[in-house]
C-alpha cells in the first residue's frame, strides 16, 4: 500500500483534481442556429445551458481511498455541485483528511461533506430526499440496493460495478512479457483493482508453460505488512 500510494493514489489524485480545476472555467453552453418550417419569418434565439444537479451523494470503495474520492469529487465540484461523500468503512481517515485539505483551500462550508459509517449510512444517503444524484463504485450486489434506495425520489444514479477483465495469450506471444503482464494484472494491489485481470484465456499450446511462469512470478511476491 505504501508504494502504491506514492506512485498511484497520490500523484493520480493530484493530476485529476488539477484537470478538473482547469476545466471548471471552460464548461459553457452553446448557441444554436435553428429554423422552424411553420414560422419561416420568425426570429428565434436558441441555446443550451448547463446547470449543476444540486447535491451529489457519492459512495466509494477502499482499494484506492484517495483516488476513488478524487474521481467522484473532481467532476462534481467542477460542475458546481455540492457533495456528500461516504468512504468505505475500512478507510474513513483518508476522506476525512482530504476534507480538511478542501477546508484549508477555502472551499465554502457545506460544499464538501464526509459521512462515515457502514452500510446503513450508504442506504440513508441513497434514499435521502435532499440528494439529487448518487454515484456509486462497488459490488454489483450493493449497486442493486443503491438503485432500489434511490428510486424513492427518482434521483439519477451512476454505477461502476464489479466486472471481469480477461487477459488473452495467443501461441505466438512472447511468454516472458505475457507472464509479467498477466501477473501484474491480477496481483497488483492484491487484485483489488477495477480493471484487475481476473480471467486468463490461454492457447492450449502455451498453457502449461505460461502457467508455470506466472506461478514463478507469484512465488516472488513478498507477503507482509504493506508499510515496509
From TrEMBL:
Gene3D superfamilies assigned: Aldehyde Dehydrogenase, Chain A, domain 1 (3.40.605.10), Aldehyde Dehydrogenase, Chain A, domain 2 (3.40.309.10)
UniProt xrefs under Pfam families: Aldedh
One Gene Ontology molecular-function label: oxidoreductase activity, acting on the aldehyde or oxo group of donors, NAD or NADP as acceptor
InterPro entries assigned: Ald_DH/histidinol_DH (IPR016161), Ald_DH_C (IPR016163), Ald_DH_CS_CYS (IPR016160), Ald_DH_CS_GLU (IPR029510), Ald_DH_N (IPR016162), Aldehyde_DH_dom (IPR015590)
Keyword terms of this UniProt record: Oxidoreductase
Residues of the Aldehyde dehydrogenase domain: 6-227
Family: Belongs to the aldehyde dehydrogenase family.
Name the UniProt record assigns to this protein: Aldehyde dehydrogenase domain-containing protein
Amino acid at each position: 500500500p505504501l508504494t502504491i500510494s506514492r506512485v498511484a493514489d497520490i500523484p493520480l489524485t493530484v493530476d485529476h483534481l488539477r484537470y478538473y480545476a482547469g476545466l471548471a472555467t471552460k464548461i459553457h453552453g452553446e448557441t444554436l442556429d435553428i429554423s422552424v418550417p411553420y414560422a419561416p419569418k420568425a426570429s428565434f434565439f436558441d441555446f443550451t445551458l448547463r446547470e449543476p444537479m444540486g447535491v451529489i451523494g457519492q459512495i466509494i470503495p477502499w482499494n484506492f481511498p484517495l483516488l476513488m474520492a478524487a474521481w467522484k469529487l473532481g467532476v462534481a465540484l467542477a460542475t458546481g455541485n455540492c457533495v456528500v461523500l461516504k468512504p468505505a468503512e475500512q478507510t474513513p481517515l483518508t476522506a476525512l483528511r482530504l476534507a480538511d485539505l478542501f477546508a484549508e483551500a477555502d472551499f465554502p462550508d457545506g460544499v464538501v461533506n464526509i459521512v462515515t459509517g457502514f452500510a446503513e449510512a450508504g442506504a440513508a444517503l441513497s434514499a435521502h430526499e435532499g440528494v439529487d444524484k448518487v454515484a456509486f463504485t462497488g459490488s454489483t450486489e450493493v449497486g442493486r440496493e443503491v438503485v432500489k434506495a434511490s428510486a424513492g425520489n427518482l434521483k439519477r444514479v451512476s454505477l461502476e460495478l464489479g466486472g471481469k477483465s480477461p487477459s488473452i495469450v495467443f501461441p505466438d506471444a512472447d511468454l516472458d512479457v505475457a507472464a509479467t503482464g498477466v501477473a501484474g494484472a491480477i496481483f497488483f494491489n492484491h487484485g483489488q483493482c477495477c480493471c484487475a485481470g481476473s480471467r486468463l484465456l490461454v492457447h492450449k499450446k502455451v498453457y502449461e508453460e505460461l502457467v508455470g511462469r506466472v506461478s514463478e512470478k507469484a512465488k516472488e511476491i513478498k507477503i507482509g505488512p504493506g508499510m515496509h
